[in-house]
Amino acid sequence: MQVHYAGAVSSTPSHPSVPAEALARQARLERLLAAMEQQAPSLEPSCLRELKCALAGTTALDMHAWIGRTQAEQLIEEAAEMVRSSHRQIRDGALLEKWVGILGPLAAKAQAKRCALLHLDTRRTTIRFHFSKLSPALDLDDRDLQVIFLRAFRLEGLIVALDLGKRPRPVLRSQIPLPAGIAGLDESMDVELKKEPPGSQEELVKRIQYRLPEGLTIRQWEVIPNHASGLAERAVAAHWRWLCPLSLQESARNMAEVFQRSEEGREGFLRTMTWEAGVLVFTTRMGPFLATNPMKVLAARLGVNPVDVTGLTREDLELRPDARLGQPDRFTSKLKNIYEDAVLLGGGSNITLVDDEDDEPLRLG
Q1: What is the pLDDT of residues 125-144, one digit of tens each?
Q2: What mean pLDDT value characterizes the chain?
Q3: Whole-model pTM?
Q4: Within a 13 Å sphere around the CA of 41, how many CA atoms are in the beta-carbon half?
Q5: For residue 168, which phi and psi values (nearest 5 degrees)?
Q6: What is the spatial distance between Cα 146 and Cα 164, in angstroms, rounded to a whole number?
Q7: C-alpha angle with apex 149: 74 to 287, nearest 5 degrees?
Q8: How far apart are CA 35 and CA 157, in angstroms?
Q9: Are 352 and 361 in contact (CB under 8 A)?
Q10: What is the dihedral of CA 2, 56, 103, 337, to 10 degrees?
């Protein structure tokens, strides 16, 4: 069963400084998330479900007992992250400040302990999942996809590991994200879980898929070593198909013919280009400083607006072998050094860090 895009009216408050288009996108995303929650009962840990209800103002909590249960389940940091990520939906400012004040110090202590022992944690598991993005999900951008997948994992009881930042966030990494409006047959994300999920992998993927909006389909789910390289480091080319609109077919066919007669394919961004009965098939190079939007490249060559380049699909990526997988000892030790550096920074130093969110310096030591 698929989640469709129709839904209840969003409760997102309007704001005069926010563009109407952005508000509409946020409202649509909230409708999708609400529909995902209605698909099946939530399997989140009970303490996080109780916190969500308390933040919504529907239930009251015995604070002392709730904190004890949450600490016993080692979910204080996750609870604090839930409060931070919900700040736009919480209308009661006093309630938000109350929870931030309660969970902030507890989460800081939990993070310090986690950082000190992180390199010894053998339960953390990295999953690389491959998925397709097709209509009607084409206009979802990378941020939307991350929010949707993260919500699906949480609803199915998967605890996503947190990073080592000042305000820890779930470790969910897009590999080579697509712009909104472009389809993808084999897209990928990496998610780091606090522990490997129990039970059948096939059943888990089936449950997650049941919640996802129409147009998103998980095609493969694999456990990879924590030190594995990201696909962006390994990608050398991307293969595309453009179902060209009738009004642009003659121009696109001429463009392909000119390209084949030129020397550009040897050194330029475009590596190959052929015309196949109304479809432009081409390959783009990938690597450092080559993350160019193909919609804009085609639009510039055809002399049209990028919004007119519709029907574009990334079929797959061409990857080089992962050198890290053949040297596990070397890269495992590097990860250990990163964890130790994080503990050192957290324990005191004269280094000044700047947080990306508020640009205020955080002085350690």
Answers
A1: 999 999 999 999 999 999 99
A2: 85
A3: 0.84
A4: 3
A5: -55, 135
A6: 19
A7: 110
A8: 17
A9: yes
A10: 20
